[in-house]
Amino acid sequence: MKKFLKGFFRVLTAPVWVPWRAIRALARGLYRLRMRLVAFFTAEPEEHSFADIVQRASEHPQDLWYHLNIFRKHLFRAVLFWLLTTGFSVVFTPRLIDFLAAPIGGIRHLQAIEVTEPIGVFFRVALLSGFALALPYIYWEMYLFVAPGLRPRGRIFGLLAAPLVLAFFVGGMAFAYFVMLPTALPFLLNFMGIPTLPRPSSYLRFVTNLMFWVGVAFEFPLIIYLLAALGWVKARHLLEHWRIAVVIIAVLAAAITPTVDPVNMLLVMAPMIVLYLLSIGLARLAEHGREAPETPPKESAV
After folding, report:
1. Whole-angstrom Cα distance, residue 23 to residue 44?
2. What is the DSSP string of 256-289?
3. What residues contact residue 13 under an 8 Å CB cut-off, 6+ apart?
4. Better-scored residue on pLDDT, 179 or 88
5. Cβ atoms within 10 Å of 230's Cβ, excluding its own
6. Which residues of 8-37 are buried (b: 16+ CB within 10 A; e: fewer)?
7. What value does the CA radius of gyration of the chain take, rounded to a whole number of Å?
8. Residues in Cβ contact with 206 at an 8 Å cutoff, skipping those fewer than 6 apart
9. pTM for the whole thing?
């Protein structure tokens, strides 16, 4: 009887204690989350030079395997999310293919000569679209991997840079689509006066490769910021070796540019040089975040 009354009382007072326990559990969870975030953004990393890191990895290879195992987990989650976004991209891939074929008049101006060609083109475009959608999460996983080695200021700036990853990549693809393709396609499709009827596989491989690599090239400032935040790159060295950088940019622009004329090559080089100058500023900002705050010495009373 006593157990029955006790159970009846608990049921009767459930509208009071159930919400109270839920609110208390939620408050505890938020408090723990707050403490973890505070510890994450305030913890100071151990300072080691690149030479010390290499020597330590050679002397204790098990530490390197430990970090590689952590990186494997982050990479696995990033690839899994990329597959999910690719599956989502399948829904609007036909309209995206028509959009990519708009510079030559649409899909009707493409002619397939193999049975499986349209299927390969379809999934190629879906993978690129899925990568663009998954890029913020891929950056998040990479950020979680390198964040323990950054100073608190670098972690904050690295987190704030997450939207810029997608913006720079999409900006690079937009530059390739709206600026480079309209100038390159007329030259390629009418070279020597020979009209060309492009195949879906060759045309969309050409377009997606161009858009992807130009988008990756636009990520260069963020990559430099990350390397500078880790202490592997110095803004002063980037500024001193700007001539070598221009030569490397010219080689990359020649590899990315679909044509052999210098006009399209300069169209790629100009934004890459601007991005290089931007990367120098971001590297200096990352170095400033790595500098330990100096505490002024206390004056002793005489």
Report:
1. 34
2. H-SSSSHHHHHHHHHHHHHHHHHHHHHHHHHHHH
3. none
4. 88
5. 17
6. eeeeeeeeeeeeeeeeeeeeeeeeeeeeee
7. 27
8. 258
9. 0.67
Residue 64 in tokens: 């390197």
Q: What is the DSSP letter of 114?
A: S
The identity of residue 15, as a single letter, is: P
DSSP state of 178: I
Q: Residue with structure tokens 């973890």?
A: 36
Q: What is the dihedral of CA 152, 155, 157, 160, to 10 degrees?
A: -130
Structure tokens at 204: 């969309």
Tell the burial category of 154 from Cβ atoms under 10 Å away from its Cβ (0-12, 13-18, 19+).
buried
Terminal Cα-to-Cα distance of the chain (whole angstroms):
81
Sorted by sequence, the CB contacts under 8 Å of residue 140 that are 6+ apart come out as 162
Instruction: Please give the structure tokens belonging to residue 162.
Output: 């997450």
* Separation between Cα atoms, residue 158 and residue 231, nearest integer Å: 14
Q: How far apart are CA 257 and CA 279, in angstroms?
A: 22
pLDDT digits (tens, 9 = 90+) for 174-231: 888 888 888 777 777 776 677 777 888 888 888 888 888 888 888 888 888 777 766 6
| Nearest Cα residue to 96 out of 124, 55, 61 | 124
CA 179 to CA 34: how far, in whole Å? 46
